[in-house]
Amino acid sequence: MDPISVVWLRRDLRLFDNKAILKAKEFNLPIILLFIFDDDIINELKKDDPRITFIYQQLKKINDQLNKNGSSILIKKGKPLEVWNELKKSFNIINITCARDYEPYAQSRDKAIFEWAKQHGINFIGVKDQVIFEKNEVLKKDGKPYTVYTPYKNKWLEQFQQTKIEVIENINYELISKSQFDFPTLEILQLQKSKINVLDYDISVMEDYGEFRDIPHKDRTSYLSPHLRFGTVSIRQLVLLAKNKNETFLSELIWREFFMQILYHFPHVIDKSFKEKYDRIPWINNEEDFEKWCEGKTGYPLVDAGMRQLNQTGYMHNRVRMVVASFLCKHLLIDWRWGEAYFAEKLLDYELSSNNGNWQWAAGSGCDAAPYFRVFNPTSQLDKFDKELKYVKKWVPEYDTPKYPNPLVEHRFARQRALDTYKSALG
């Protein structure tokens, strides 16, 4: 068996400006590109989860590109450690390169594979790909992580100005192995095609992003988030573009990295409040109210439109996400973790760090969060951002008919109840 390097693709599903591939080329050995449908992740999802369908479609595009140049991608399904043990029987693996992932499951998985590789004399090399700055690269002067966004952003921008960011768009296929692997069908992988599709992204919205981003019916969002999540676009390319086009858009990309470093430095946020005292809040957690919130039947049009958009498409407008999350935590006094889990199941752009950070922001329990006494009024938010009801009528066709439900709870009562509950619990 000839010695080879393996590039393990995970959240970097592209061939251009791919740091793991570029690193593998340094070893000057034939390269096999590998993707593992991880049973530890997939078994927690539905067979037709749209995100899995999207991953499959992106892998097919990569394979088609490789085919044109006489090569292919190797697709496996199973538990990663078991897959690597099988691969070792068929290939003389010298190096494994991959893009680092910062979520707790990914870190424990990679640690296990690192130890396995070390036992077998294989180099396991992680590279930075999905962020501009990672882990401990943006810290305060005292070496501690930032927990407030604006100082983090300022430091991030300062370091960005001093960092040379390169985008390597040219794809050199010479070292990629000419092996012809069969590309499996979804049926062979025991998966099903979803009826929900991930939309193509639109970078042109950067031009007027700050002006229209809060108006739901205008739909001036980029739809980039799922592509960032799975690495079908290069963060370096996007950041350089945003730097020249739109500061507001660049700020959103920095928020993404802020929440990633919060998760990295404070992993307890996965199931606990960032601010410990917020775990004392006595949530009502009424299951019938939660079900109505999930279905978009709360009697508050903006909330219901957002939830129905989510359920039908896997997307929800960013402004509406804040209103929907605030309504669950403050109006219904339902634990933010319930909402976070529902979003994790439904959102096409679900990313643990951002989902967690945004939900804790809405609940008041997170770092740099909205103060607990800030309670979004879903009616005034509707008047402000969808006065003509264009967004609402698109997703709630029975609005303003006898079929539309009465509000689950009266706003003024709910607001005061939330303030009293928070104040009592937080002392």
From TrEMBL:
Lineage top rank: taxon: Bacteria
Record keywords, A-Z: Chromophore, FAD, Flavoprotein
Occurrences of domain Photolyase/cryptochrome alpha/beta (ranges): 3-132
SUPFAM superfamilies named in the record: Cryptochrome/photolyase FAD-binding domain, Cryptochrome/photolyase, N-terminal domain
Pfam families: DNA_photolyase, FAD_binding_7
Cofactor: FAD; (6R)-5,10-methylene-5,6,7,8-tetrahydrofolate
Family to which this protein belongs: Belongs to the DNA photolyase family.
Protein name from the UniProt record: DNA photolyase family protein
Lineage: Bacteria, Pseudomonadati, Bacteroidota, Cytophagia, Cytophagales
